[in-house]
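Entry for the shared binder. Reason: the reviewer on the internal report wants the predicted structure included alongside the sequence.
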Amino acid sequence: MNGPGTDRGRLLLALVLAAAVAVFTATVPLLRDWFDLRVYHGAVESWAHHGGRLYDYRVPGTGYGFTYPPFAAVCMLPMALVGLRTAIVLALLLNLAALALVVHLLTDGAWRRYGWYGVVLGACPLALFEPLRDTFSFGQVNILLLALVLVDARLLRSGHSRWAGAGIGLAAAVKLTPAVFIALLLLTGRRRAAAVATGVTAGATGLAFLVAPDASRFYWTRALWDTDRVGRLDYVSNQSLQGILARLGIEDRAVWAAAVLLVLAVWAVRVRRAAAAHDTPAAFALTGLVACLVSPITWVHHLVWLLPSFAVLYRAGRPRAAGALYAVLCTSVVWLWFDDASGIGGFLGANTYTWITLGLLLWLPVGHSSSRRPPLTRVTTATSSAPSAAAPETAAVSAHRVPPAGAADAGTGRGSGRDGGAGRRASSEPTGSTRPAASNPQSSSSRASS
């Protein structure tokens, strides 16, 4: 790590960077007022203490309620024992702990050799990353789910695979999107881990049926299939394939299904190539990318699943590419097209994060994990490519260049329906904006974001 050679110089640089990040976060992003956490807290409190039906709850003054699978509500039941402020503090601590674990797993603990200086240099760019900003500010659970999945990736990579799959299973029981990692396990021949993941998901779902039979029946028979709960597919925060098509005015589901099948085919080819090269990190990174693309709705905060890709890029010796793409995801650039995503400018700009995700799926380097690691697949053919030589030492994703605060002049947001401009009035609701709410408002807790 290049930088000042004295402790005084490092301290000065750390203070300057921290001040720049503080100015950026105080002036550019709009805080989300823990809206999603308020949905969770209000729903489980009403359910546990007032006999309310879990999926009937709405945040006062809004049309937003709980739409995750019932097992997620079971996991959140402890929130009913505390007040909202305490729940916010606990959520912050859990997310910080999960983020620390994610960074540790993605960097193989390389951050530790730099001590406090490395922690500060890593924390600054992480604080700028828009998906992380929204995850913390909304009180979302994405980083917790990412940590569960990456623990399984580490278990498979290290050969300690007896319980591999349990993290993926829990994540899929809380939200539906991580279930694509079960497909990864099957595709790469990890049948035991796939069975563990499937069993954990089924067991967790069964537990929810025992605890909340009525809520479970309602969710799996009605709420899951109720398209009115999805929200606005064309909203600029929806950075998925479906979001692109919706902003183009293409409503034919067959077109979306064809696009999804094509992307899944590319993913399968690339994952098999990564598995043949014994590159477990790349295989998991590619799967996080495809999960964001094929989900009907991928709000900006869901893009924390792109973090493993930046670690792969850095390990493959492409820090400039990693830093450039990461910097774009810090700028909130898509919100420049909040009001109007028409024309060629809207097609290119409003879908910027989706283009980055697609580009990473197509060109993410594979075959750069350490040759000392066991393969992801159990059996490889004689024609399979050999594992690469010892890869460059893994460095923290957080070591990427910090983008200048002035580069981001657009307000941040996601499926919050909130105004994207920095000069616009902030709102505590996900649809708070200067224009009327849509008839089908979207929320981070909508079915599609599961």
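Summary line for the report: Confidence is low (pLDDT under 50) at residues 371-375, 377-450.
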